[in-house]
Amino acid sequence: MTGNIGRDVANIIVDPQIYTTQFLLLLCQSIHLTLQEVDGESVDEDAMSQIIEKLNHHSLIARDNPAVNKIRLKPSEALELYYNLLKQHNINQEEGLEGNKEICELLYATRIKELEDNLRSQESIFKEQVKYLQG
């Protein structure tokens, strides 16, 4: 039974659905920069290890409590997460830089929509509170 739990956790940790769009976008943008450095070839575990290290120092990841807010994915898991994300959006991982650019654009559009929705929601709450205070 313990083996099944371990496999379940391993499957969950590489499922793009459990991560925020913001995190996935940061990951893919970092991969994009790395792919540009290697002329659009694929990213290996060594490169992913460096990407994770850089992300761990990114202000959006480490802002509240740097000791807690660390990416705990192994490089192999981060690669599998990335490949699962590409597969989820029907992007062939062999497309290298072009495929990465496509996923970055998709995630960027999704993130912008999330932010706009959040702003609309906050605006609505603000208006309700002003109306309440005006009695």
Tell me the layout of helices and strands:
Elements: H1 2-13, H2 21-37, H3 45-56, H4 59-62, H5 75-88, H6 96-134
Summarize the structure.
The chain is mostly helical. It has one domain (2-134). The protein has helices spanning 2-13, 21-37, 45-56, 59-62, 75-88, 96-134.
Name its key features:
135 residues, mainly alpha, 73% helix
Describe the structure.
- The protein is an all-alpha fold and 135 residues long.
- The chain has one domain.
- The chain is 73% helix and 0% strand.
- The chain has helices at 2-13, 21-37, 45-56, 59-62, 75-88, 96-134.
- Helix 3 (45-56) crosses helix 5 (75-88).
- The longest helix is centred in the C-terminal third of the chain and has 39 residues, at 96-134.
- The radius of gyration is 18 Å and the shape is elongated.
Main sheet specs: none
Number of separate structural domains:
1
Total beta strand runs: 0
| Rough outline | elongated
Structure class: mainly alpha
User: What is the share of helical residues?
Assistant: over 70%
